[in-house]
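Quick question, first post here. What does this chain look like in 3D?
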Amino acid sequence: SRRLPHDIMKKFVLMTAFTVALCAAMSSCGDDEPENDGNVIASAEVSDFGGVRLMSVDGGIDYSYNSDGTLHQVKGFGLNMTFDYKKGLMIADEEGENLEVRFTTSSKGYITGFSSSGTVKEGYVTYNYNVSHKFEYDSSDHITYASVNQVNTDADSHKLEEISMSWKFSWNGDLLSKVEITGQSNGIEGDDQMNYTNHYSYDESVENRFMQYTYGVVESTDLPGIVQTVMYAGLFGKGMSKYPTRVYGFHERNIDYMINSRGLVETENIKYEFDDFTYPIDYTYSSSTKTNPRNAGSALRRMKAQRGDSRYHVNLFRITKI
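> Answer (accepted):
Ran it through. Tokens below.
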């Protein structure tokens, strides 16, 4: 049966931070990490937006790059993520606590997987978890599928719960048309599931010259925050060839943009119906591009909306219940 995400959130949600496994609790800690066996390709091209690189989103997420142009670190809201391409590791540091996440990429440098494991104590309950993410792309370098699976076990390795989510991306040429999100939880407390879809339209839209992902689309996918923050920097494939002006389905919003002379978004304005406020999202790049900004996209309109999440998604690797 179809159930709305609001119902499912009572059962499980994606976590609000990397507040779990410390490096000391993981079997892969130390300086003797193996090489990545060719499963990670460090690509500077994926983060190249016409000769510049994304430096910040909305003054809350900051990006830095290695000397060769590859993404080095993402910082935001108390969480730092550093990429070690040689070891195939992403080190997530939250207020001094480290979690090592293994990752793999395609031959073009797009991320194809994350995985981690550890032990977590939540209240009076302690359990072990194994979690993995997978990502697939088409021949045009668009993401087509994403999934996360987590198995929680007790101290004796008895399965307590298995939780999974998946995202199916449908494209019409280079335009994202819809994202279908499904999830289910099977465990000792019973089963639960969810299923919903978001659609994207491009009325009065303009060219997205370098196929960048922007907040209005990324946030609407409900992908884990670890994915969302890195998606802006190009490591999860190419975006749309036009900037979408409306998202509708479960998440509904109208979007317009201020585009700089290079064809990149300088400011993205998002309008939800649940209030009368327009949310401006600002972007900065590695060199000044504020020349002759122009307004693009449809006029902001009132619309039916339901927005139960926070404004930012700088969170979410492991799945947890509430």
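Residues 1-34, 288-316 have pLDDT under 50 and may be disordered.
The helical segments are 5-8, 215-218, 225-231.
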